[in-house]
Amino acid sequence: MNREKRTWVLAGICCMTVVFSGCSGSKKTAEIQPQSIKIGVSVYDQYDTFMSEIISQLQSYAREKEKDWGISITLNIQNADQSQFTQNDQMENFIEEGCDLACINLVDRTDASIIIEKAKSNHVPVIFFNRELVEEDLERWEELYYVGADAFESGQLQGEILVEQCEQDFVSIDTNGDGILQYVMLEGEAGHNDSMVRSMSVINKITESGYTVEKLDDEIANWNRDQASTKMTPFLNSYGSEIEVILANNDDMALGAADALKARGMDSQSDDWPVILGVDGTDVGLKAVEKGELLGTVLNDAKGQARGMLELAGSLILKKDLSPEYTLQDGKYIRLPYQKVTAENVSEIQSRQSE
């Protein structure tokens, strides 16, 4: 998705004339069916590929649910531009505009206090999504929820993809024949829960499966393709063909690594192309698996998260049962499972995602 399209997707407000807009702090009785709902949505960075896909899915699903629920749904989508201060102000604006509920993709998962206090004092429920806040913060008020996935599982599955390939053809990966997998790691953010857990669990899975690894280097690339490409350049200068495996915390960074290899004149079909693994299963990530640039990725269900958020929002605002497709764990969490994606099943995944 190009920059202009992403900006359009996130800047747009999905639908629709607001026929009924009460203050979100007002109490709706079970007997009165609202004619419209208004949801404020703030994402940490509109240029994050996975976030862009979630928002696109959320907008599309909102149009479907307008028909199913017989109401108007307005989504006020804002970009926090990687600033927690900006996001705090956006939460204040959502309240002033009478939003019934807020969906927040936190900039800083450890700094949710201001948003929580604003929400609690104004009786505006909040669904945090994709970037999981600290558990103690989620317990500070009964109207706080989280929709996302288990970061530990994503690292485990990323490791499983590599282990399965090693079991099939270890020699082609262990190019120097020393019986050790030499790797570099591209990590998301310093202190980010998903980044730390994925980095740890992928290595644990590989070593628990009986393979020896050697970390040549690692760098923070902030989930960003261009940064990852830049960070790969000194790796290639220092280690060159010693790099047998590239582990990236998300697809954009995996693709940035591939970009750096291509800039060196390397071809993904050649024997000197290292194994590259990502996480997210974005459209561009799936295409890279299809082309053989990535050995695999781990699907982080953008469609499922978007739909889970809207179904939960509808349940809370309209006072109706949550769709049986989703389970609210501990009264707080909707967790979507990850799925391994390799050349064997990528076409199936792509077809399912386009439905």
From TrEMBL:
Q: What top-level branch of life does the organism fall under?
A: Bacteria
Listed A to Z, the keywords are:
Calcium, Metal-binding, Periplasm, Signal, Sugar transport, Transport
Q: Where in the cell does this protein reside?
A: Cell envelope
**Which SUPFAM superfamilies does this entry report, sorted A to Z?**
Periplasmic binding protein-like I
The Periplasmic binding protein domain, residue ranges: 39-319
In Pfam terms, one family for this protein is: Peripla_BP_4
Record-linked PANTHER family? D-GALACTOSE_METHYL-GALACTOSIDE BINDING PERIPLASMIC PROTEIN MGLB, D-XYLOSE-BINDING PERIPLASMIC PROTEIN
Q: How does it assemble?
A: The ABC transporter complex is composed of one ATP-binding protein (MglA), two transmembrane proteins (MglC) and a solute-binding protein (MglB).
Q: What is this protein called?
A: D-galactose/methyl-galactoside binding periplasmic protein MglB
